[in-house]
Design goal:
CATH architecture of the domain at 44-179: 3-Layer(aba) Sandwich
Helix content: 10-25%
CATH class of the domain at 44-179: Alpha Beta
CATH topology of the domain at 44-179: Pathogenesis-related Protein p14a
Order of helices and strands: HHHEHHEHHEEEEEEEEEEEEEEEHEEEEE
Shape: globular
Radius of gyration: 24 Å
Distance between the termini: 50 Å
Structural class: alpha+beta
Strand order of the largest sheet: 19-18-15-14-22
Number of helices: 8
Largest sheet: 5 strands, mixed
Length: about 500
């Protein structure tokens, strides 16, 4: 058995160990601990696969890259699930995301033992957690129809996910942590379509000087460092999977200044979509391991000449600036064909403390029928000076002031204002599920003026750019400068109003 398969089986054992541990906690609450996995426990992996497949299909349909499973994020989710199931009653809403020391998901992720890397300072951690209790279809439908959860699933900044499904009262407790790391870009192969899904850096605090950002080209190499492409090829959302008998290849990203290399699994670490399986069901389940992710290495970014990737003279890349890190060398030439793949290290800079932004205070929700401004802060907010700038068309929030019956300077939590089309026919567009009351509706744009369907637009306040919103996302979070970080995102619990 080669080392690559050993690594995959170890990951499989960790996942099953986590599930067994959590299931024992659940059963222990009713006074019985089984000696062998039950059918519900064994099916937890299947529940994870089914839900992950739906999430990936949803993201791809929205023009986003799929999510790559990450062991550390999975451990973060599993640890929180174990804590929740140790309580006398399962919390509801945002309390599902509060850990044993009162910490939120981002604080748990950046602390021991997980040490999730941050962008520049500890307040800039690209992690969000969502949850639901019930079936796979309930969790998926709830996350689709809740603007808060939808904005997390469809956040283009996220590239990795840690998802767990734990049996609970006839259904499952689903916990998902979404994340991104500086200088770690994913690439996921789909053997069915023979494509590789690429990613790039979209996190708002990733600056071009410190981390690879605007990737514009890639190269492919085999495990011995031999090129599989004739030089650089342009970055595209998907590229053809090269013909090879190997179980993995390596992809080098470049933005013309910095580079990052990632392993692309072709056998086990492949794209999970509805109907696919990621785990080897015949693999024996080992003893439950201790889940203690290693601390992320401290790396130093410098710029130097690009190392030679292959001894073939005609394929030697042209020297250019690149990222050199302390620790294991990242060049494919140094990776023997049978060696255990070297994980792409991450960059950690000296922090300068700033507060964690938390969740957004306001959501802009938009689709083919309407645009909505929704207060999700949990308290009144001042939206009076907000302006939605679509280039040729701007929408100041004061337009609603003429017909709203509450002050925009103290706009209530869970309330919203909307724009409908002037040619709206039939039933009015429904408000987002999290909007308890529509306080005002404007009719002054025709459908062909709905700029949010085709172009990026900006949310500003007093001349300050707060958010850049993408048409593919359909939701856009806005952080108001004078407010502290919002509470953790609520999670879907059947029968609980949030």
């Amino acid at each position: 058995m080669n080392k690559h398969h050993t690594r995959r089986i170890h990951r499989f054992r960790i996942r099953h160990g986590v599930i067994l541990l959590l299931c024992c906690i659940v059963i222990g609450l009713i006074g019985f601990a089984p000696q062998h996995p039950t059918s519900a426990q064994i099916s937890s992996d299947e529940m994870v696969n089914r839900l992950l497949g739906l999430l990936n299909s949803w993201r791809i349909g929205e023009g986003l890259w799929p999510l790559e499973p990450n062991d550390t994020l999975e451990s973060i989710s599993a640890t929180q699930a174990a804590f929740l199931l140790s309580l006398a009653e399962l919390p509801v809403g945002g309390q599902l995301h509060i850990g044993p020391q009162g910490e939120n998901a981002r604080e748990r992720a950046r602390g021991e033992p997980f040490n999730w890397p941050f962008y520049g300072n500890p307040g800039q951690v690209a992690v969000s957690e969502i949850a639901a209790v019930g079936s796979v279809s309930f969790a998926y439908n709830f996350w689709q129809n809740s603007p808060l959860h939808r904005s997390t699933v469809l956040n283009p900044a996220y590239r990795e996910i840690g998802l767990v499904a734990v049996p609970y009262q006839g259904g499952y407790l689903f916990l998902a942590n979404f994340g991104a790391r500086p200088n770690v870009l994913t690439a996921i192969a789909d053997p069915v379509t023979q494509l590789i899904y690429l990613s790039r850096e979209e996190y708002q605090f990733a600056t071009a000087d410190a981390w690879i950002r605007d990737v514009n080209r890639v190269r492919l190499f085999d495990g011995a460092g031999r090129p599989l492409t004739a030089g650089w090829i342009p970055w595209e959302p998907t590229i053809p999977l090269p013909a090879t008998d190997a179980d993995r290849i390596f992809l080098l990203y470049s933005d013309g200044n910095l580079q990052a290399i990632t392993e692309v699994g072709l056998v086990d670490d492949v794209l999970v979509l509805p109907g696919t399986r990621q785990f080897v069901a015949s693999t024996a389940i080992a003893a439950i391991p201790t889940i203690t992710p290693l601390a992320s290495p401290t790396l130093t970014a410098t710029r130097t000449s690009l190392p030679t990737f292959t001894p073939i003279p005609s394929s030697t890349p042209t020297p250019e600036p690149t990222l050199v890190v302390s620790g294991p060398t990242l060049t494919p030439t140094d990776i023997p064909p049978t060696a255990t793949p070297t994980l792409t290290p991450t960059l950690t800079l000296t922090p300068s403390p700033t507060p964690d932004r938390g969740d957004p205070d306001v959501l802009v929700v938009y689709d083919d029928d309407s645009l909505t401004i929704l207060n999700v802060a949990g308290h009144t907010v001042n939206i009076e000076a907000l302006v939605i700038d679509g280039g040729d068309i701007t929408i100041p929030a004061t337009n609603w002031a003429r017909v709203v019956d509450v002050p925009l300077a103290a706009f209530p939590s869970g309330h919203c204002v909307q724009i409908w089309s002037t040619d709206q026919a039939g039933d009015p567009p429904p408000p987002p599920d999290d909007c308890r009351a529509v306080r005002s509706v404007l009719f002054y744009l025709s459908r062909d003026q709905f700029f949010w369907l085709t172009d990026q637009f900006t949310v500003r306040r007093s001349g300050l750019d707060l958010s850049f919103c993408q048409p593919r996302s359909r939701t856009c979070g806005v952080f108001l400068a004078e407010l502290s970080a919002a509470a953790e995102q609520p999670a879907g619990v059947p029968g609980v109003a949030e």
